[in-house]
Amino acid sequence: FDPRHYLGTHCHGFPKTGPHRLRFLLESVKDLRETLKKKGSTLVVRKGKPEDVVCDLITQLGSVSAVVFHEEVREIL
């Protein structure tokens, strides 16, 4: 979870993620983790800036052969 996704918007300061959306996201991640666990896998969840967290995770795991990510589409005003 990137903390920057939960700050206020640039224009009006409204929260990007309200309490209902946050609860939905947390429940979805919990469900995904449980589903993966039943299939013999796992889900790593971290909080922080991805550019920092991914580097730390790679170092921690030690034997990473690939990293896959997506970039969020940003609004053009």
What is shown here, in short?
By secondary structure, the chain is mostly helical. It is 42% helix and 0% strand.
Structure report:
With 77 residues, the chain is mainly α. It has a single domain, classed as Rossmann fold, CATH 3.40.50.620. It is 42% helix and 0% strand. The longest helix is centred in the middle third of the chain and has 20 residues. The radius of gyration is 15 Å and the shape is globular. It starts with 18 loop residues before the first helix and ends in a 16-residue tail after the last helix. The relative contact order is 0.12. One of its GO terms (molecular function) is deoxyribodipyrimidine photo-lyase activity. Pfam families: DNA_photolyase. This is CRYD protein.
Low confidence ranges? none
Domain count: 1
Shape: globular
- Tally the helices: 2
- The overall strand count is 0
CATH homologous superfamily grouping: HUPs
CATH class: Alpha Beta
H/E element sequence = HH
CATH architecture title: 3-Layer(aba) Sandwich
Taking the sheet with the most strands, its summary is:
none
CATH topology: Rossmann fold
Instruction: Give the termini distance in whole angstroms.
Output: 25 Å
Overall helicity: 40-55%
Binned strand content: under 5%
The pLDDT mean sits at: 84
What quaternary form is this? single chain
Domain Photolyase/cryptochrome alpha/beta: 1-77
Organism: Erpornis zantholeuca
Keywords: Chromophore
Pfam family, one: DNA_photolyase
